[in-house]
Amino acid sequence: MNPRPIHGASARPVRTAADPRAWYARAALAVLWALAASAGDGLAQPLGPPHPFVLAEKGGLPIILTSPHGGHLAPDSLADRSCDACILGNDGGTQEWARETADAFERATGRRPYLVINLLARRKLDANREIVEAADGDPHAESAWAAFHAAVEEARADVEARYGRGLLIDLHGHGHPIRRLELGILLSAIDLSRTPDGLNSLYGRSSLRALAERTGGLAALVRGPDAMGTLFADRGIPAVPSAQDPFPGPGEAYFTGGYITQRHGSRDGGTVDAVQIEAPGPGLRDTPANIRSLALATASVLEAFLARQYGLVLDSRPAPRPAAETCLELESVPAALRVRVEPSCLAAREPAARIIDVLGRTLLAVPLQPGSFEIDLDGFAAGLHFLVIDSGARRSARSFVLLPR
Ligand SMILES: [Zn+2]
Question: Looking at the domain assignment, is residue 78 inside a domain?
Fold first, then answer.
């Protein structure tokens, strides 16, 4: 990394001659690895080897959040999927839902869940399918698929080793006419409509198998007063199944859970359960403010569900964090990045903030000032970037994704 001369905050980004589509250049991996290695300096710890198209963070809670259909990257170096009957459209806002939920947990508990995000658009990779349909034969997409699922496997193993049990939540969006969350645990609408005893007998086919074995009843987990759907509905977000809406009626569209829920839940073994949550767009995924509200509710529901069903009570006092982590807060606003820097973090004589891309190239360098300021991002390419703040002996970094405009 060669820091460039410092420009004013409104300076245009510095362009380089390298081909921006060279995603697989060794340099990309080297840069991500170098940043990941500075995890104690404000980055979440990585899960598994770094991959340019997969964001995988190690957490400090027995919760794994996955986002397979919310990626924004669509480099030309990957072919568009063209398989018959393949779904190519993204679940809008679901990557942001995952990130905001992780942030909400961190604000409430001082710890973040495990996070595994497919950064590629669905027309390049569908991480919620087996590899043939997922990647449609593109070797780069296959490599991203493998990295995504290896990261989830590592997260599951880590959660089992540290907490003994845990919960994976796979986040999606649906366009069905009934505006309610659809919680999928691999059981059909007809299965869910059975009597309590009938439903309890199906626990071995569900992605909540391990939890149901411990608690002795699937029906209570699905439509009892402390069921996940009930907890959402109690917070003003209708959900099926729940005490309020126990099963989808005849002819009503309903997603039962896909490849991630099948592969990474507890149906086939292990003690990490899985639930696929599908959210409607209007009022929940359609604006940044609505996504943030949905994320706050999601974190609140999951915290209550863990406490009441798993007996895992999260310490609500923020854990002490390394000072560097509190140096930097990022908020994206249209075409700009709002940065807040703690004055105490500016020990260096000439502190600077740099924006670098996944190839490690410095795109922009600005002098740093305490408090809030905005960095103009007009003219930057879409994709994963990092804001790096060097202030004396300490380096803080945060990743952010620029959406196509
Ligand atoms: Zn989806």
Answer: yes
Ligand 1 centre distance from Cα of residue 137 (Å): 20
The residue count for the chain: 405
Rounded to the nearest whole angstrom, what is the distance from the C-alpha of residue 215 to the centroid of ligand 1?
29
CA distance 200 to 222: 10
- Across 43-66, average pLDDT: 90
In total, how many domains does the chain have?
Answer: 2
| Residue 200 within a domain | yes
- The arithmetic mean of pLDDT across residues 267-291, rounded, is 97
| pTM of the shown model | 0.72
* One domain, residues 182 and 264: yes
Give first-to-last CA distance, the chain, whole Å. 28
Nearest to 186 by CA among 260, 253, 295: 260
What's the CATH number where 267 sits? 3.40.630.40
The token duo for 377 is 């991002």
Q: Please check the confidence at residue 185 and state whether its pLDDT lies above 60.
A: yes
Does a structural domain hold residue 4?
Answer: yes
Give the pLDDT band of residue 23 (cuts 50, 70, 90). Answer: very low
114 residue type, one letter: Y
Distance 173 CA to ligand 1 centre (A): 6
Q: Which residues of 365-404 are buried (b: 16+ CB within 10 A; e: fewer)?
A: bbebeeeebebbbeebeebbbbbbbbbeebbbbbbebbee
pLDDT of residue 9: 31
The Å distance, Cα 89 to ligand 1 centre, comes to: 9
Q: Where are the alpha helices (DSSP H) in 207-256?
A: 209-215, 218-223, 228-234
CA–CA distance, 70 with 90 (Å, rounded to integer)? 6
Quote the ligand 1 centre to 92 CA distance (angstroms).
9
**How many Å lie between the centroid of ligand 1 and the Cα of residue 285?**
13
What residues contact residue 244 under an 8 Å CB cut-off, 6+ apart? 229, 230, 233, 238
Examine the fold and report which residue of 282, 310, 338 is the final residue of a domain before the chain moves on. 310
Distance 68 CA to ligand 1 centre (A): 7
pLDDT class of 20 with cuts at 50, 70, 90:
very low
Distance 69 CA to ligand 1 centre (A): 5
Q: Measured between alpha carbons, how far is 198 from 279 in angstroms, rounded to an integer?
A: 27
CATH number reported for the structural domain that contains residue 360 in this entry: 2.60.40.3080
**How far apart are the CA of 169 and the centre of ligand 1, in A?**
12
Residues 104, 50 share a domain: yes
